[in-house]
Amino acid sequence: MEQSAGDTAMNDGPLAEARAAPRFTLLIRSAKLIAPQGQFLCVIRDVSATGISLRGFHPLPDGDPLLLELQTGDRLPIERVWSRGLDSGYRFATPVEVGDVISETGEYPKRPLRLDLDLPLDLQWSGERIEADLVNLSQHGARIECAQFLAIRQPLWLMSDRLPEIEAKVRWRDGNRYGLTFDTTFNLREFALLAARLQCPRLLVEQPQG
C-alpha cells in the first residue's frame, strides 16, 4: 500500500491526526523543494491540511530547514516523515489551507519555477565570447548578470562545462542584469536532473534501481 502525506509507523499523537486529515490527490503539480543542498524540482502527489507527499525525479534531499515553494512563490516550512525511493512524505510546520495549495492561489500569480543559482559561464555570439554569471534558471529562460551591453532580442549561446549548450535571446535588460528566453526549452524531467547535477550530484548516484 502506498504511503501518503504524513504516513509513519507510529499510530498515536499528532502524526495519527495527520493521517486522519482528508487527502487530495494532485496530478503533475510541480513545486520546488528548498533544502540545505540547494533547490530541487518535484511533483506534488497528494496533500492534506497537515502533510504532503512529493515525488522527485531523483531521491529528494533531506535536512533542516526544508521549504516547499509553490508556483505562486508561497513557501511552506515542512519536515520529512518518511522516504522511499523517489517518494517522500512531509509534515507541515503549521496546518495549511488545502484549497489554496490545490488552486495555487497566493499573493502573486503563478509563474514558472526558477532555481536560484550562482554559476559563472560564457556568452558567445558572432565570434565574440564574454564572461557572465547565471543568477537563476527556469525551463524556459534564465537571468544573468553581465558587464557588457547586450541588445534586446540579441541571439547568443550560453556556454559552460556544467551546462548543455543553450541557444537564447535577450528578452529584457535592467542595468547589468538581463533576462533570456531559450530557443529550446527543458522538459520538467530534464530540468530536475540538471538542477541535481549542478547542486548535489550524489543524488543522481542514489537513483533507486528497478
UniProtKB/TrEMBL annotation:
Q: Which residues form the PilZ domain?
A: 19-92, 114-192
Q: Please report a single Pfam family linked to this protein.
A: PilZ
The molecular function terms of the Gene Ontology recorded here are:
cyclic-di-GMP binding
Listed name of the protein: PilZ domain-containing protein
- Coiled-coil regions in this chain? none
**Source organism of this protein record:** Pelagerythrobacter aerophilus
Q: Which Gene3D superfamilies match?
A: predicted glycosyltransferase like domains
Mind telling me which residue stretches traverse the membrane in this protein? none
Which InterPro entries would you find in this protein's record?
PilZ_domain (IPR009875)
